[in-house]
Amino acid sequence: MSISNAEVIVTSPGRNFVTLKITTDDGFVGWGDATLNGRELSVASYLGDHLVSALIGRDENRIEDTWQYFYRGAYWRRGPVTMAAIAAIDMALWDIKAKRAGVPLYQLLGGASRDGLRVYAHASGSDYAALSAAIRGYVDQGYTAVRIQTGVPGLNSVYGVSATAKPGQKYDYEPAHRGVDGAAATRPQEEDWDTHAYLNHIPQVFAQVREEFGPGLRLLHDGHHRLSPIEAARLAKSLEPYDLFWLEDSTPAEDQEAVRLIRQHSTTPLATGEVFNSVFDYQTLITDRLIDYVRSAVTHTGGITAMKKLLDFAGIYGIRSGMHGPTDISPIGMAAALHLGLAIHNFGIQEYMPHSDTTLEVFRTSYAFDRGFLHPGETPGLGVELDEELAAQYPYTAAYLPVNRLLDGSLHDW
Ligand code: GCO
Ligand code: MG
Description:
This is D-mannonate dehydratase. By secondary structure, this protein is of the alpha/beta class. The protein has two domains: 2-104, 2-Layer Sandwich (Enolase-like, domain 1); 109-377, TIM Barrel. It has twelve helices and 18 strands. The chain has helices spanning 40-55, 63-71, 80-101, 128-141, 195-213, 229-238, 258-265, 283-287, 303-316, 331-343, 357-362, 388-391; strands at residues 3-11, 17-24, 29-33, 117-125, 145-150, 190-193, 218-222, 244-248, 270-272, 293-294, 320-321, 350-351, 363-365, 368-370, 373-375, 384-386, 403-406, 411-412. The strands form four sheets. Strands 4, 5, 7, 8, 9, 10, 11, 12, 14 and 15 form a ten-stranded mixed beta sheet that branches. The chain binds D-gluconic acid (GCO) and magnesium ion. Residues 37, 175, 222, 224, 274, 326, 328, 351, 401 line the site of D-gluconic acid.
Protein backbone atom coordinates (compact mmCIF):
# COMPACT_ATOMS: atom_id res chain seq x y z
CA MET A 1 0.00 0.00 0.00
CA SER A 2 1.62 3.19 -1.11
CA ILE A 3 0.82 6.66 -2.39
CA SER A 4 0.22 6.57 -6.12
CA ASN A 5 -0.91 10.15 -6.71
CA ALA A 6 -0.98 13.54 -5.02
CA GLU A 7 -2.67 16.56 -6.52
CA VAL A 8 -3.12 20.17 -5.43
CA ILE A 9 -6.57 21.65 -6.06
CA VAL A 10 -7.16 25.40 -5.81
CA THR A 11 -10.80 26.43 -5.85
CA SER A 12 -12.80 29.51 -4.90
CA PRO A 13 -16.40 28.67 -3.97
CA GLY A 14 -17.03 32.04 -2.32
CA ARG A 15 -13.43 32.31 -1.13
CA ASN A 16 -10.10 30.68 -2.00
CA PHE A 17 -9.12 27.25 -0.68
CA VAL A 18 -6.07 25.05 -1.32
CA THR A 19 -6.67 21.30 -0.99
CA LEU A 20 -4.34 18.33 -1.31
CA LYS A 21 -5.74 15.06 -2.62
CA ILE A 22 -3.67 11.93 -1.94
CA THR A 23 -4.62 8.65 -3.62
CA THR A 24 -3.27 5.20 -2.71
CA ASP A 25 -2.50 2.43 -5.19
CA ASP A 26 -5.59 0.54 -4.01
CA GLY A 27 -7.89 3.52 -4.45
CA PHE A 28 -8.22 5.20 -1.04
CA VAL A 29 -8.43 9.00 -1.18
CA GLY A 30 -7.32 11.36 1.60
CA TRP A 31 -7.93 15.12 1.75
CA GLY A 32 -5.82 17.82 3.38
CA ASP A 33 -6.33 21.58 3.83
CA ALA A 34 -3.44 23.91 2.91
CA THR A 35 -5.28 27.24 2.78
CA LEU A 36 -3.28 30.32 3.81
CA ASN A 37 -5.50 33.37 3.45
CA GLY A 38 -4.13 35.83 0.87
CA ARG A 39 -1.05 33.68 0.15
CA GLU A 40 -2.79 30.59 -1.27
CA LEU A 41 -0.64 30.12 -4.37
CA SER A 42 2.61 30.07 -2.36
CA VAL A 43 1.45 26.96 -0.52
CA ALA A 44 0.07 25.42 -3.72
CA SER A 45 3.51 25.89 -5.29
CA TYR A 46 5.41 24.62 -2.23
CA LEU A 47 3.31 21.46 -2.34
CA GLY A 48 3.01 21.04 -6.10
CA ASP A 49 6.53 22.07 -7.11
CA HIS A 50 8.53 20.64 -4.20
CA LEU A 51 6.74 18.00 -2.11
CA VAL A 52 4.28 16.07 -4.25
CA SER A 53 6.91 14.22 -6.31
CA ALA A 54 8.57 12.95 -3.10
CA LEU A 55 5.22 11.65 -1.85
CA ILE A 56 4.71 9.26 -4.75
CA GLY A 57 5.62 5.71 -3.77
CA ARG A 58 5.85 6.46 -0.02
CA ASP A 59 4.17 4.13 2.47
CA GLU A 60 0.88 5.88 3.34
CA ASN A 61 0.88 4.30 6.83
CA ARG A 62 4.07 6.02 8.01
CA ILE A 63 2.49 9.28 9.12
CA GLU A 64 5.05 10.25 11.79
CA ASP A 65 7.98 9.41 9.52
CA THR A 66 6.42 11.35 6.64
CA TRP A 67 5.93 14.35 8.93
CA GLN A 68 9.59 14.20 10.05
CA TYR A 69 10.71 13.73 6.44
CA PHE A 70 9.08 16.97 5.28
CA TYR A 71 9.79 18.96 8.50
CA ARG A 72 13.17 17.80 9.77
CA GLY A 73 14.23 16.78 6.31
CA ALA A 74 13.85 20.34 5.01
CA TYR A 75 16.86 22.51 5.74
CA TRP A 76 14.64 25.66 5.52
CA ARG A 77 12.01 24.69 8.03
CA ARG A 78 8.96 26.26 9.75
CA GLY A 79 7.03 29.30 8.54
CA PRO A 80 3.34 29.41 7.56
CA VAL A 81 3.83 28.27 3.95
CA THR A 82 5.94 25.22 4.83
CA MET A 83 3.79 24.23 7.79
CA ALA A 84 0.49 24.57 5.88
CA ALA A 85 1.92 22.32 3.17
CA ILE A 86 3.04 19.69 5.72
CA ALA A 87 -0.34 20.00 7.46
CA ALA A 88 -2.20 19.10 4.28
CA ILE A 89 -0.07 15.96 3.76
CA ASP A 90 -0.52 14.96 7.39
CA MET A 91 -4.31 15.47 7.35
CA ALA A 92 -4.69 13.51 4.12
CA LEU A 93 -2.68 10.56 5.52
CA TRP A 94 -4.76 10.49 8.73
CA ASP A 95 -7.90 10.64 6.57
CA ILE A 96 -6.72 7.58 4.62
CA LYS A 97 -5.68 5.66 7.73
CA ALA A 98 -9.09 6.18 9.34
CA LYS A 99 -10.98 5.39 6.13
CA ARG A 100 -9.03 2.16 5.74
CA ALA A 101 -9.82 1.28 9.38
CA GLY A 102 -13.47 2.18 8.74
CA VAL A 103 -13.68 4.56 11.71
CA PRO A 104 -14.09 8.33 12.20
CA LEU A 105 -10.63 9.79 12.75
CA TYR A 106 -11.20 10.69 16.42
CA GLN A 107 -11.26 6.95 17.21
CA LEU A 108 -7.60 6.67 16.14
CA LEU A 109 -6.67 9.68 18.29
CA GLY A 110 -7.81 8.01 21.50
CA GLY A 111 -11.59 8.06 21.11
CA ALA A 112 -14.04 10.69 22.33
CA SER A 113 -13.28 12.50 25.59
CA ARG A 114 -16.57 14.43 25.40
CA ASP A 115 -19.97 14.31 23.72
CA GLY A 116 -19.45 17.43 21.60
CA LEU A 117 -17.30 20.53 21.22
CA ARG A 118 -18.53 23.82 22.64
CA VAL A 119 -18.16 26.47 19.94
CA TYR A 120 -18.16 30.25 19.88
CA ALA A 121 -19.78 32.35 17.19
CA HIS A 122 -18.75 35.75 15.79
CA ALA A 123 -21.18 38.49 16.82
CA SER A 124 -20.40 41.89 15.40
CA GLY A 125 -22.08 45.17 14.64
CA SER A 126 -21.06 48.64 13.62
CA ASP A 127 -23.05 50.02 16.58
CA TYR A 128 -24.57 48.59 19.76
CA ALA A 129 -28.03 47.95 18.27
CA ALA A 130 -26.56 45.87 15.43
CA LEU A 131 -24.22 44.03 17.81
CA SER A 132 -27.03 43.24 20.24
CA ALA A 133 -29.23 41.88 17.43
CA ALA A 134 -26.35 39.68 16.25
CA ILE A 135 -25.76 38.28 19.75
CA ARG A 136 -29.50 37.65 20.16
CA GLY A 137 -29.53 35.74 16.86
CA TYR A 138 -26.79 33.38 18.10
CA VAL A 139 -28.33 32.93 21.55
CA ASP A 140 -31.61 31.99 19.85
CA GLN A 141 -29.76 29.32 17.83
CA GLY A 142 -28.42 27.83 21.06
CA TYR A 143 -24.87 29.20 21.10
CA THR A 144 -23.43 29.48 24.61
CA ALA A 145 -20.38 31.57 23.65
CA VAL A 146 -19.97 34.56 21.36
CA ARG A 147 -17.05 36.70 20.28
CA ILE A 148 -17.87 40.40 20.45
CA GLN A 149 -16.39 42.80 17.86
CA THR A 150 -17.84 46.24 17.34
CA GLY A 151 -17.36 49.46 15.42
CA VAL A 152 -15.37 52.23 17.13
CA PRO A 153 -16.72 55.79 16.82
CA GLY A 154 -14.51 57.79 14.45
CA LEU A 155 -13.08 54.79 12.58
CA ASN A 156 -14.28 53.78 9.11
CA SER A 157 -13.58 50.07 9.35
CA VAL A 158 -12.80 47.86 12.31
CA TYR A 159 -11.45 44.31 12.37
CA GLY A 160 -14.22 41.73 12.67
CA VAL A 161 -17.08 44.02 11.66
CA SER A 162 -18.50 43.50 8.19
CA ALA A 163 -19.65 46.58 6.29
CA THR A 164 -22.47 44.60 4.67
CA ALA A 165 -23.59 42.08 7.30
CA LYS A 166 -27.18 41.95 8.43
CA PRO A 167 -28.10 40.68 11.93
CA GLY A 168 -28.83 36.97 12.06
CA GLN A 169 -27.08 36.32 8.74
CA LYS A 170 -25.48 32.88 8.69
CA TYR A 171 -22.05 34.01 7.54
CA ASP A 172 -21.00 37.59 7.52
CA TYR A 173 -17.32 38.25 7.75
CA GLU A 174 -14.48 37.44 5.40
CA PRO A 175 -11.56 39.79 5.91
CA ALA A 176 -9.82 39.04 2.59
CA HIS A 177 -11.07 41.26 -0.21
CA ARG A 178 -11.29 40.72 -3.94
CA GLY A 179 -11.05 43.68 -6.31
CA VAL A 180 -13.87 45.75 -7.80
CA ASP A 181 -16.97 43.68 -8.74
CA GLY A 182 -15.38 40.47 -7.51
CA ALA A 183 -12.40 40.66 -9.88
CA ALA A 184 -8.90 39.62 -8.79
CA ALA A 185 -7.44 42.04 -6.25
CA THR A 186 -4.13 43.64 -7.12
CA ARG A 187 -3.31 44.90 -3.61
CA PRO A 188 -4.77 44.95 -0.09
CA GLN A 189 -7.43 47.43 0.93
CA GLU A 190 -6.40 49.93 3.61
CA GLU A 191 -8.19 50.32 6.94
CA ASP A 192 -7.73 52.86 9.73
CA TRP A 193 -7.00 52.52 13.43
CA ASP A 194 -6.88 54.60 16.62
CA THR A 195 -5.97 52.76 19.83
CA HIS A 196 -7.07 55.64 22.08
CA ALA A 197 -10.63 55.60 20.68
CA TYR A 198 -10.75 51.80 20.88
CA LEU A 199 -9.60 51.59 24.50
CA ASN A 200 -12.17 54.16 25.58
CA HIS A 201 -15.01 52.50 23.70
CA ILE A 202 -14.67 48.75 24.20
CA PRO A 203 -15.24 48.40 28.00
CA GLN A 204 -18.54 50.31 27.69
CA VAL A 205 -19.68 47.87 25.03
CA PHE A 206 -18.93 44.88 27.27
CA ALA A 207 -20.76 46.58 30.16
CA GLN A 208 -23.86 46.90 27.94
CA VAL A 209 -23.61 43.31 26.71
CA ARG A 210 -23.33 41.92 30.24
CA GLU A 211 -26.25 44.03 31.39
CA GLU A 212 -28.46 42.90 28.50
CA PHE A 213 -27.45 39.23 28.28
CA GLY A 214 -26.65 38.41 31.92
CA PRO A 215 -23.74 36.54 33.49
CA GLY A 216 -24.21 33.11 31.84
CA LEU A 217 -23.18 33.83 28.26
CA ARG A 218 -19.48 33.27 27.57
CA LEU A 219 -17.96 36.36 25.97
CA LEU A 220 -14.75 36.54 23.95
CA HIS A 221 -12.89 39.38 22.25
CA ASP A 222 -10.10 39.59 19.66
CA GLY A 223 -7.65 42.50 19.90
CA HIS A 224 -6.06 41.40 16.59
CA HIS A 225 -2.47 42.31 17.45
CA ARG A 226 -3.01 46.08 17.68
CA LEU A 227 -1.90 47.15 21.15
CA SER A 228 1.39 47.75 22.91
CA PRO A 229 1.97 45.57 26.00
CA ILE A 230 0.96 48.28 28.45
CA GLU A 231 -2.14 49.20 26.41
CA ALA A 232 -3.09 45.52 26.34
CA ALA A 233 -2.60 45.28 30.10
CA ARG A 234 -4.97 48.24 30.54
CA LEU A 235 -7.55 46.60 28.27
CA ALA A 236 -7.35 43.23 30.03
CA LYS A 237 -7.72 44.95 33.40
CA SER A 238 -10.60 47.15 32.30
CA LEU A 239 -12.50 44.10 30.99
CA GLU A 240 -12.18 42.11 34.23
CA PRO A 241 -15.63 43.08 35.57
CA TYR A 242 -17.24 41.54 32.45
CA ASP A 243 -15.76 38.08 32.99
CA LEU A 244 -14.36 37.28 29.55
CA PHE A 245 -13.81 33.67 28.46
CA TRP A 246 -10.71 35.06 26.77
CA LEU A 247 -9.02 38.12 25.37
CA GLU A 248 -7.21 37.14 22.17
CA ASP A 249 -4.07 38.49 20.48
CA SER A 250 -4.01 41.95 22.00
CA THR A 251 -0.31 42.42 21.13
CA PRO A 252 1.65 41.39 17.99
CA ALA A 253 2.02 37.65 18.50
CA GLU A 254 5.69 37.20 17.63
CA ASP A 255 6.77 38.91 20.88
CA GLN A 256 6.16 36.22 23.49
CA GLU A 257 7.58 38.38 26.30
CA ALA A 258 4.95 41.09 25.70
CA VAL A 259 2.30 38.81 27.18
CA ARG A 260 4.14 38.73 30.52
CA LEU A 261 3.24 42.36 31.14
CA ILE A 262 -0.46 41.74 30.44
CA ARG A 263 -0.39 38.71 32.74
CA GLN A 264 1.18 40.67 35.59
CA HIS A 265 -1.69 43.16 35.54
CA SER A 266 -4.80 41.12 34.92
CA THR A 267 -6.74 37.93 35.57
CA THR A 268 -8.56 38.11 32.22
CA PRO A 269 -7.78 34.77 30.48
CA LEU A 270 -5.53 35.15 27.43
CA ALA A 271 -5.49 33.33 24.09
CA THR A 272 -2.97 33.56 21.29
CA GLY A 273 -1.40 31.70 18.38
CA GLU A 274 -3.56 31.80 15.24
CA VAL A 275 -0.56 33.15 13.31
CA PHE A 276 1.87 30.66 14.88
CA ASN A 277 2.98 27.58 13.00
CA SER A 278 5.10 25.56 15.41
CA VAL A 279 5.39 24.55 19.06
CA PHE A 280 8.51 26.72 19.25
CA ASP A 281 6.38 29.87 18.83
CA TYR A 282 4.77 28.96 22.17
CA GLN A 283 7.72 27.77 24.21
CA THR A 284 7.90 30.67 26.69
CA LEU A 285 4.14 31.29 26.62
CA ILE A 286 3.47 27.72 27.71
CA THR A 287 6.29 26.96 30.12
CA ASP A 288 5.86 30.31 31.90
CA ARG A 289 2.05 29.91 31.89
CA LEU A 290 1.51 33.25 30.17
CA ILE A 291 -1.56 32.14 28.20
CA ASP A 292 -4.67 30.07 28.85
CA TYR A 293 -5.63 28.96 25.33
CA VAL A 294 -3.68 27.80 22.26
CA ARG A 295 -5.20 29.35 19.11
CA SER A 296 -3.26 27.47 16.40
CA ALA A 297 -5.06 25.94 13.46
CA VAL A 298 -4.34 22.34 12.49
CA THR A 299 -4.03 23.73 8.95
CA HIS A 300 -1.26 26.22 9.78
CA THR A 301 0.67 24.27 12.40
CA GLY A 302 1.83 21.14 10.61
CA GLY A 303 -1.35 19.06 10.82
CA ILE A 304 -2.84 16.67 13.33
CA THR A 305 0.49 15.04 14.24
CA ALA A 306 2.03 18.38 15.27
CA MET A 307 -1.10 19.87 16.87
CA LYS A 308 -1.59 16.81 19.05
CA LYS A 309 1.95 17.16 20.40
CA LEU A 310 1.54 20.92 20.92
CA LEU A 311 -1.74 20.47 22.80
CA ASP A 312 -0.37 17.61 24.90
CA PHE A 313 2.57 19.87 25.84
CA ALA A 314 0.16 22.72 26.70
CA GLY A 315 -1.99 20.33 28.73
CA ILE A 316 0.88 19.63 31.11
CA TYR A 317 0.69 23.32 32.09
CA GLY A 318 -3.12 23.36 32.37
CA ILE A 319 -3.46 25.27 29.09
CA ARG A 320 -6.37 24.35 26.83
CA SER A 321 -7.21 24.39 23.15
CA GLY A 322 -9.07 27.14 21.31
CA MET A 323 -8.31 26.14 17.74
CA HIS A 324 -8.63 28.73 14.99
CA GLY A 325 -11.80 28.23 12.95
CA PRO A 326 -12.65 31.17 10.67
CA THR A 327 -13.89 30.54 7.12
CA ASP A 328 -10.32 30.66 5.80
CA ILE A 329 -9.82 27.22 7.38
CA SER A 330 -11.49 24.94 4.81
CA PRO A 331 -14.13 22.42 5.92
CA ILE A 332 -11.33 19.80 5.75
CA GLY A 333 -9.19 21.76 8.23
CA MET A 334 -12.26 22.35 10.37
CA ALA A 335 -13.03 18.62 10.46
CA ALA A 336 -9.42 17.90 11.49
CA ALA A 337 -9.81 20.34 14.41
CA LEU A 338 -13.10 18.72 15.44
CA HIS A 339 -11.72 15.16 15.50
CA LEU A 340 -8.69 16.29 17.49
CA GLY A 341 -10.77 18.44 19.84
CA LEU A 342 -13.18 15.60 20.54
CA ALA A 343 -10.31 13.28 21.46
CA ILE A 344 -7.93 15.37 23.57
CA HIS A 345 -8.49 15.90 27.28
CA ASN A 346 -7.54 19.60 27.42
CA PHE A 347 -10.08 20.89 24.90
CA GLY A 348 -11.25 24.43 25.71
CA ILE A 349 -13.54 25.81 23.00
CA GLN A 350 -13.75 25.74 19.19
CA GLU A 351 -14.13 28.82 16.99
CA TYR A 352 -16.95 28.30 14.50
CA MET A 353 -17.80 30.50 11.53
CA PRO A 354 -20.12 28.46 9.30
CA HIS A 355 -18.97 28.31 5.68
CA SER A 356 -21.20 29.69 2.95
CA ASP A 357 -23.69 27.41 1.21
CA THR A 358 -21.54 27.63 -1.94
CA THR A 359 -18.48 26.40 -0.03
CA LEU A 360 -20.47 23.57 1.53
CA GLU A 361 -21.74 22.39 -1.86
CA VAL A 362 -18.14 21.90 -2.96
CA PHE A 363 -16.91 20.47 0.38
CA ARG A 364 -19.48 17.93 1.63
CA THR A 365 -19.15 17.59 5.40
CA SER A 366 -20.35 15.14 8.03
CA TYR A 367 -19.85 17.48 11.00
CA ALA A 368 -22.97 18.95 12.54
CA PHE A 369 -23.99 21.79 14.86
CA ASP A 370 -26.47 21.15 17.64
CA ARG A 371 -27.43 23.70 20.33
CA GLY A 372 -24.04 25.32 20.76
CA PHE A 373 -21.93 22.21 20.15
CA LEU A 374 -20.28 20.66 17.08
CA HIS A 375 -19.62 16.97 16.48
CA PRO A 376 -17.38 15.63 13.68
CA GLY A 377 -19.83 12.85 12.78
CA GLU A 378 -19.31 9.10 12.39
CA THR A 379 -18.27 8.93 8.72
CA PRO A 380 -14.95 7.04 8.36
CA GLY A 381 -11.94 9.38 8.04
CA LEU A 382 -12.22 13.14 8.41
CA GLY A 383 -15.77 13.07 7.04
CA VAL A 384 -15.28 15.67 4.28
CA GLU A 385 -15.25 14.98 0.54
CA LEU A 386 -14.43 17.52 -2.16
CA ASP A 387 -16.62 17.55 -5.28
CA GLU A 388 -13.88 18.05 -7.85
CA GLU A 389 -16.15 18.76 -10.80
CA LEU A 390 -17.97 21.47 -8.91
CA ALA A 391 -14.70 22.84 -7.49
CA ALA A 392 -13.44 23.32 -11.05
CA GLN A 393 -16.27 25.75 -11.69
CA TYR A 394 -14.83 28.21 -9.13
CA PRO A 395 -11.41 29.38 -10.32
CA TYR A 396 -8.92 31.03 -7.97
CA THR A 397 -9.46 34.78 -7.67
CA ALA A 398 -6.80 36.82 -5.88
CA ALA A 399 -8.00 38.32 -2.59
CA TYR A 400 -5.91 39.95 0.14
CA LEU A 401 -6.20 40.66 3.83
CA PRO A 402 -6.23 44.42 4.52
CA VAL A 403 -3.37 46.54 5.78
CA ASN A 404 -3.91 49.03 8.59
CA ARG A 405 -2.84 52.64 9.07
CA LEU A 406 -2.99 54.95 12.08
CA LEU A 407 -4.80 58.26 11.62
CA ASP A 408 -1.48 60.00 10.83
CA GLY A 409 -0.98 57.61 7.90
CA SER A 410 1.71 55.40 9.41
CA LEU A 411 1.42 51.65 8.99
CA HIS A 412 0.11 49.62 11.94
CA ASP A 413 -0.55 45.94 12.63
CA TRP A 414 -3.84 44.76 11.09
C1 GCO B 1 -10.00 34.91 14.21
C2 GCO B 1 -9.05 35.57 13.30
C3 GCO B 1 -9.45 35.64 11.86
C4 GCO B 1 -8.31 36.23 11.05
C5 GCO B 1 -8.31 35.59 9.72
C6 GCO B 1 -7.24 36.09 8.81
O1 GCO B 1 -9.82 35.07 15.40
O2 GCO B 1 -10.85 34.20 13.72
O3 GCO B 1 -8.51 36.71 13.86
O4 GCO B 1 -10.67 36.28 11.62
O5 GCO B 1 -8.43 37.60 10.92
O6 GCO B 1 -8.15 34.22 9.91
O7 GCO B 1 -7.21 35.34 7.65
MG1 MG C 1 -8.13 36.08 15.93
